[in-house]
Design brief:
- The strands form ten sheets. Strands 28, 29, 30, 33 and 34 form a five-stranded antiparallel β-sheet that branches.
- This protein is an alpha+beta fold and about 650 residues long.
- It is built from nine helices and 38 strands.
- Helices cover about 25% and strands about 30% of the residues.
- The protein has a domain at about 235-375 and about 410-445: Lipocalin.
- One of its GO terms (biological process) is embryo development ending in seed dormancy.
- It comes from Brassica campestris.
- This is Protein GAMETE EXPRESSED 3.
Length: about 650
C-alpha cells in the first residue's frame, strides 16, 4: 500500500468560491471578511442542525433559518461537533472546557454552565445516553468518566498491568499516552481509544477493565475508529487507503479492503446504515461501500477522472441511504513519488449532491450546483456564515431533499439498533455436532441413573434390620425366606394333587398358605430392598372386627354310616392383628436362621395338636347328637355327629 497525501493548490473553500461573483465591490469584500465559520454540525432527531460559531451556539431549522441561539463566554472549538447528552441538553467543547447548554423552555433561555474544566487540552469526548455518562480524554492525563451530575466515576490510563504483566504500551512504557478522543459502541457497551504507539484499546463503559488491546502500529500509527454497532468496529488508515473490520468482542481482524486515496484532514470517517453497510468517500470520486462480510459496492461504477469526494457522507433520516457530495474540478493530477501519492486539484466547477442506497448501488436523487445556481442559499440567515460542502450537505440531509423513504421514529431507531450484532459463541466441544448431542444425552442418562442409585441407597441403609447388624446377615435372611417360600409352594402343590381330602390335609394346606403370606409380607417389608412398610398400621384402621362373609363345609362318611361336617369360618380380626404384631416384632432376633427354625417349630406343634383333636372327635361311639368345638388361633371348626336311621 502507498501513502496518500492530499494537498489542495487552491486555499479557497469550494462553496465560498462557487457562490462568489467574479467582480466584487469593496463593500462586498468587507462583507465577506465578516462571515462566520461554523463548527462541525450535528443533525438532531428533531430534524434541526446544531453548530457553534465563535461565542454563540446555534440551532438551525432544516431550511437554514435560525431557530434559537445562546451566547457563550468562551469561544467554541470548530473542529468538534456538539454532542446530545439527553434531557434536552447539548455538550459543546469551548477552548479547554466543556459547556452544558439547555434547550429553551417556553421561550426562556438559560445560561450555559461549565460541565468539565480540567485546565488542560481536551482531545475529545463522547456521551453514552444509556449509561448517562460522559467520557473525556485529557491530554497527558488519561480518560475520565463522569456522570450527568458531574461526579467522577473513574480514570483510565494506557499503562495497565494485570497479574504482573504489562498490557499495552509495549514499546515506550514511560511516554505512552492516549492521543485520541473516545468512541462509544452502544451495542457492546465498549469504549474505543488509541495511544500514541498505534495501539487500539477496548474498555468497558462500567469501569477501567480492558476487554482487549490490538496493536495496529505495524500498519500505521494514524487511524480513525468507527463503531459499527453490528458486532464489528471499523478502522480506517487514510495514509494507507485501507479499511479494516475488527471483531468487537475479541479485537481480531476479520477482513481488510483497499479503497481509493483518502483525505487526511477530513472524509476518512465512514458512515454505517441500518443494513450494516459501511460507506466511505474517496478522492478518486467513488463511494466505496462494504457489507458486513466485506462485499464491495462502488457508486458510481463509471466515475469521471476530474472528480473527488472530500467530506464524509451523511446518513438520511430513514437509515437506508446516504447523502454524498461529489466535487467536479477543472483538472486533477495524481503523482506517485516513492511510497506516497500526491493529489493536486484545480479550481472546482460543480458540486453534485446525491442520495445513494449502498446495498443496491441505486441513486434515488441527484442534483448539481454551480455559480449559476444561487438558489442553493436556503435562507437569508445562512448568508452570514461561510458555506462549504460539509455545511451544505448537512442542510440537504436535514431537509430530506429527494428522499423517497419514510423517516424513522425513535422507537424504530431503538428497535433497529444492534439488529445485526451477532453474539460471540464459544465452542466448548470440537467435532461432529451429532456425536456431541448423543454424548450429552448419554451424560444426562448417567446422571439420572446415578441420582436414582443415590436415592435408593439413602432409603435402603435406613432400614431397621440393617441397624447394628452386618449386611451379610440381612442377605442370609432374605435367602432363607425365599427358600422357605419355595418349599411351602411345593408342599401346597403336592397336597393339592393328592386324591384324599381329609381334615388333616385341609388344615395343613391352610396353615401353609398362611405361612406363605407371612413370608411374602416379610420379603416385601422388613427384608425388602426398599423402605420399611409399617404393617401394624393396617390393623388399626378398624376398631371392631368386620365380617367379610363366605364359608365352606367339608363332609366325610365312615363305614358306620356316620357323617362329619366341618364348617370353616374366617378368623377373628383381633387374632389377625395379634399375628401381624407378632410377625412384625418376632424378627428382631440376632440370628435369622434361628428365627426361621422357631417358625417351623410353631407350625409343627400346631399341626400335631389339631391331629389329636381330629382323632378324638371321630372315634366317639355315643349315639346321640353331640357337638364339640375345636378352637385354634387360626380358625374355628365345628363337629356335629348325627345318628342315621336304619331300615327295619
Amino acid at each position: 500500500m502507498v501513502d496518500v497525501r492530499f494537498f489542495f493548490v487552491s486555499l479557497i473553500i469550494f462553496f465560498f468560491i462557487v457562490f462568489s461573483t467574479v467582480s466584487q465591490s469593496p463593500d462586498q469584500t468587507m462583507e465577506k471578511k465578516s462571515l462566520r465559520v461554523l463548527s462541525k454540525t450535528l443533525i438532531g432527531d428533531d430534524g434541526r442542525v446544531y453548530a457553534c460559531s465563535d461565542n454563540d451556539f446555534f440551532s438551525f431549522e432544516s431550511n437554514g433559518s435560525i431557530a434559537w441561539s445562546v451566547h457563550m463566554d468562551f469561544k467554541c472549538n470548530t473542529g468538534f461537533s456538539p454532542v446530545y447528552s439527553g434531557f434536552n441538553q447539548m455538550l459543546v467543547l469551548t477552548e479547554n472546557r466543556i459547556l452544558r447548554i439547555d434547550f429553551p423552555r417556553n421561550g426562556t433561555k438559560s445560561e450555559p454552565e461549565t460541565f468539565f474544566d480540567p485546565g488542560e487540552t481536551i482531545l475529545g469526548f463522547a456521551v453514552s445516553i444509556s449509561s448517562s455518562s460522559v467520557y473525556i480524554t485529557v491530554k497527558d492525563h488519561g480518560l475520565y468518566a463522569y456522570n450527568m451530575l458531574r461526579q467522577q466515576l473513574w480514570i483510565a490510563e494506557p499503562k495497565t498491568e494485570r497479574f504482573g504483566y504489562r498490557l499495552g504500551c509495549q514499546k515506550d512504557y514511560e511516554n505512552c499516552k492516549f492521543d485520541s478522543g473516545p468512541v462509544i459502541d452502544s451495542c457492546e457497551a465498549s469504549i474505543y481509544i488509541s495511544n500514541n504507539e498505534g495501539e487500539l484499546y477496548s474498555l468497558s463503559l462500567r469501569g477501567t477493565y480492558n476487554q482487549w488491546i490490538q496493536d495496529l502500529s505495524v500498519i500505521d500509527r494514524f487511524f480513525t475508529v468507527t463503531p459499527g454497532n453490528n458486532g464489528l468496529v471499523y478502522v480506517v488508515f487514510p495514509t494507507k487507503s485501507l479499511v479494516f473490520a475488527l471483531d468487537s468482542f475479541s479485537g481480531n481482524i476479520l477482513w481488510q479492503k483497499t479503497v481509493g486515496p483518502l483525505s487526511e484532514s477530513s472524509g476518512s470517517l465512514p458512515v454505517i446504515d441500518t443494513n450494516s453497510w459501511v460507506s466511505i468517500g474517496s478522492l478518486d470520486g467513488t463511494l466505496y461501500s462494504f457489507s458486513r462480510t466485506g462485499e464491495l459496492h462502488k457508486t458510481p461504477e463509471n466515475v469521471e477522472t476530474d472528480s473527488m469526494i472530500q467530506v464524509e457522507p451523511l446518513l438520511d433520516c430513514s437509515g437506508n441511504a446516504v447523502y454524498v457530495s461529489q466535487t467536479k474540478l477543472e483538472g486533477k493530477t495524481d503523482q506517485v513519488i516513492g511510497d506516497s501519492t500526491f493529489v493536486s486539484a484545480k479550481k472546482p466547477e460543480t458540486a453534485v449532491f446525491s442520495l445513494v442506497v449502498p446495498e443496491t448501488r441505486s441513486i434515488h436523487w441527484s442534483h448539481s450546483y454551480s455559480d449559476q445556481s444561487p438558489s442553493l442559499l436556503l435562507d437569508e440567515d445562512l448568508q452570514h456564515f461561510v458555506l462549504d460542502e460539509r455545511i451544505v450537505l448537512a442542510f440537504i440531509a436535514a431537509s430530506n431533499s429527494g428522499n423517497p423513504f419514510r423517516c424513522r421514529s425513535k422507537h424504530d431507531k431503538l428497535s433497529s439498533s444492534c439488529s445485526f450484532a451477532e453474539p460471540e459463541h464459544l465452542d466448548i466441544y470440537i467435532g461432529n455436532e451429532r456425536t456431541i448431542i448423543w454424548f450429552l444425552l448419554f451424560e444426562f442418562v448417567i446422571i439420572v441413573l446415578f441420582a436414582a442409585l443415590v436415592r435408593f441407597c439413602f432409603m435402603f441403609w435406613k432400614k431397621q434390620k440393617l441397624q447394628g447388624r452386618p449386611f451379610s446377615a440381612f442377605l442370609d435372611k432374605r435367602r432363607l425366606l425365599h427358600r422357605k417360600r419355595r418349599e411351602i409352594d411345593r408342599t401346597i402343590t403336592r397336597l393339592q394333587n393328592e386324591s384324599t381330602a381329609d381334615e388333616f390335609s385341609v388344615d395343613k394346606i391352610n396353615d401353609l398358605v398362611q405361612e406363605r403370606e407371612n413370608v411374602k409380607r416379610k420379603l416385601s417389608s422388613t427384608y425388602s430392598l426398599g423402605r420399611d412398610i409399617d404393617a401394624s398400621s393396617k390393623s388399626k384402621d378398624h376398631v371392631l372386627p368386620l365380617y367379610r362373609g363366605g364359608s365352606r363345609s367339608l363332609s366325610f362318611r365312615n363305614r358306620k354310616n356316620e357323617s362329619i361336617t366341618i364348617f370353616e369360618t374366617h378368623r377373628h380380626e383381633s387374632s389377625s392383628s395379634e399375628e401381624s404384631y407378632r410377625d412384625q416384632h418376632y424378627d428382631d432376633d440376632d440370628d435369622g436362621v434361628a428365627d426361621d427354625e422357631n417358625d417351623e417349630g410353631d407350625l409343627k406343634r400346631k399341626q400335631k395338636g389339631k391331629f389329636h383333636a381330629h382323632s378324638e372327635g371321630s372315634s366317639s361311639d355315643d349315639g346321640d347328637d353331640e357337638s364339640c368345638g375345636i378352637a385354634s388361633s387360626r380358625r374355628s371348626t365345628y363337629l356335629k355327629k348325627r345318628s342315621l336311621s336304619f331300615r327295619d
